[in-house]
Amino acid sequence: MKSILIRYGELTLKGNNKHIFISQLISNIKNQLSSFEKDKIKYIKDNNSLVLDVDDLLVNEIIDKLKNVFGIYSFSVIEKCDKNIQEIFKVVLKIVNSSDKKRFKLEIARKDKSFPMSSADLKLELAPMILKAAGDLIVDVKNPDLKIEILIKNDAAHVFSERIEGLKGLPVGVSGKALSLLSGGIDSPVSSFLTMKRGMEVDFIHFMTPPHTTPDALEKVFELAKIVSKFNSKNFKLYVCNFSMLLQELQHIPQQSYKITIMRRMFIRIANKLSLKEGHQSLITGESLGQVASQTINSIDVINCVSDIPILRPVLTHDKEEIIAISKKIKTYETSILPFDDACSLFVPKNPVTKPKRWTAEKQENAILWNELLDFTLENSIEKFSLINGEFIKQE
Q1: Which of 30, 46, 213, 347 to pair with 254, CA 20 to 30 A apart?
Q2: Does residue 121 register a pLDDT over 70?
Q3: ω before 352 within 30° of 0 (cis)?
Q4: What's the CA dihedral at 313, 317, 319, 324 to 10 degrees?
Q5: Taking the model in full, what pTM does it have?
Q6: How far are the Cα atoms of 7, 125, 158, 188 from residue 153, in angstroms, in the given order?
Q7: What would the mean pLDDT of 347-371 be, rounded to a whole number?
Q8: Beta bridge partners of 388
Q9: Are the C-beta atoms of 245 and 185 separated by less than 8 Å?
Q10: How many whole angstroms separate alpha carbon 386 and alpha carbon 22?
Q11: Which element (helix H / strand E) includes 207?
C-alpha cells in the first residue's frame, strides 16, 4: 500500500463550521474516486489533513483524479514508518538514494507533542546521519533541489519529498447551487469553473435556435459541459432551451440595436423561472466588462434589473488573454473555438446599443408578445439532461 497526504488549506480557517467543509470535501473525493474498488482505498482523516492508503498500482491514477477536486490545497505521496530515529533514517535515505539531486534540506514538524524529541533536536541528530550515509550530499537551506519533510503524527512518521499543488478553493456544494448560461464560447465554461472554485454546485442552461444553430453547435455545448463536469458535483443537470419562437418575435422590436439586450433579458427571465423551480440561488454568465460592445456597465444594469436572484460574473474583470489561459488550463479552449455559432453570436445587430436604458428596453418589449411566448417556452421547450456513464441522457 502507498499513502497520499491531502492538505485542506483554506478549509482549516472555517472555525466551528470546519467539519462541514471537510465532510463535503471527503464526499467529493470519494465521488471522484468512485470508479475504484472501495477496498483499494482507506480514508484516515484529522482536522488538518486526510490520508488515503491506496493500492500501489493506483497511485498515479488517483493523483490525476485529486487534481480535479476543489478544496485540496496540496497533496504528497508519503512513506509511513515507526516513530523512531532509525526507521525514519532508513526512509529518508531511501528517498535520497533514489534521487540524483544533491542540494539537500530537511524539515521536521512534530504534530504529536508526546514524541520525546523536539523538531530541532530530531533534525540535529538525523541530518549528520543522512550526510554521512549519502556521501556527496550537501546542505542548502536557501535553495535546495531536494527538500525532505518529516511529520511526526500520532499514528506514524510521515516522510515525503514533493508537494503537488491542488486546485485550492472550497469544496463544490458548500456554497449552494447556481445555474450557468452556457453559450458554447470561451468565457462561460471559465465562469462556471471559477464559480465551482468558490464551492458552488453548477447546473447549465443552453439556448439554441434551430434551424439557425446546428446539431453540431449543440454537441459542442454537451462536450463543454462534460469537460467542466470533472470539477463539478456528480448530480449536475444540463437544460437545453429551444429559443426559436421568442427569437422570431424579437425580430419585430422597433429598435433593432436593442435586439441583443432584449434577447439577454429573455434568457435571464427564463433562467430565473427555471431556478425558482429547480432550487438555484444565483445565475452565472461569462460577461467581461467592455470585451464586446454590448458588455458595458449600462447593458449589465438593464439586464440585471429583470433578475430576482443574483447574477455572478466571475470573469467580469478578466481580459481575453486571462480567460483564454484559464480555458486552456481546464481544457475547454479547443472545444470552445470550434466554428459552430450560438444564438447570441448569430443575432448580434450590426450596431448594438452600448448604453441602453431601462425604459427604452421596456418600450421595445411592450411592442411584442413576449410574455405568452416565454411561458410557452418554459412549459414546452426545455429539455433536461443528466450525465450518466459519460453520456448525456434526456430526463423526463
Answers
A1: 213
A2: yes
A3: no
A4: -40
A5: 0.92
A6: 14, 19, 7, 44
A7: 89
A8: 391
A9: no
A10: 27
A11: strand 201-208
Higher pLDDT, 342 or 33: 33
8-state DSSP, 256: G
**CB contact set of 221 (below 8 Å; sequence gap of 6+):** 182, 183, 184, 204, 206, 238, 240, 342
* Residues ≥6 apart with Cβ < 8 Å to 236: 201, 202, 203, 204, 229, 386, 387
Annotated binding site for ATP: 181-182, 206-207, 264, 286, 295
Grid coordinates representing 108? 521536521
Going by the DSSP 8-state scheme, the letter that residue 144 receives in this structure is: -
pLDDT single digits (tens) 71-118: 999 999 999 999 999 999 999 999 999 988 989 999 999 999 899 999
How far is Cα 229 from Cα 196, in angstroms, rounded to an integer?
Answer: 10
Whole-number average pLDDT of the chain:
92
Nearest Cα neighbor of 160 from 99, 102, 114 is 99
Q: In what order do the strands lie in the sheet with 282-284?
A: 311-312, 282-284, 177-181, 201-208, 237-242, 382-388, 391-395
d(Cα 311, Cα 305) in Å, to the nearest integer? 10
Task: Express each pLDDT in 122-172 by its tens digit.
Answer: 999 999 999 999 878 888 989 999 999 999 998 899 999 999 999 999 999
Residue for grid cell 427604452: 360
In whole angstroms, what is the distance from residue 102 CA to residue 104 CA? 6
Q: Which residue numbers belong to the known binding site?
A: 181-182, 206-207, 264, 286, 295
Q: Identify the CA nearest to 45 among candidates 71, 63, 22, 17.
A: 22
- Do 112 and 157 touch, CB atoms closer than 8 A? no
DSSP 296: S
- Cα 173 to Cα 321: distance, rounded to the nearest angstrom: 29
Q: Cell numbers for 67, please give them.
A: 487534481
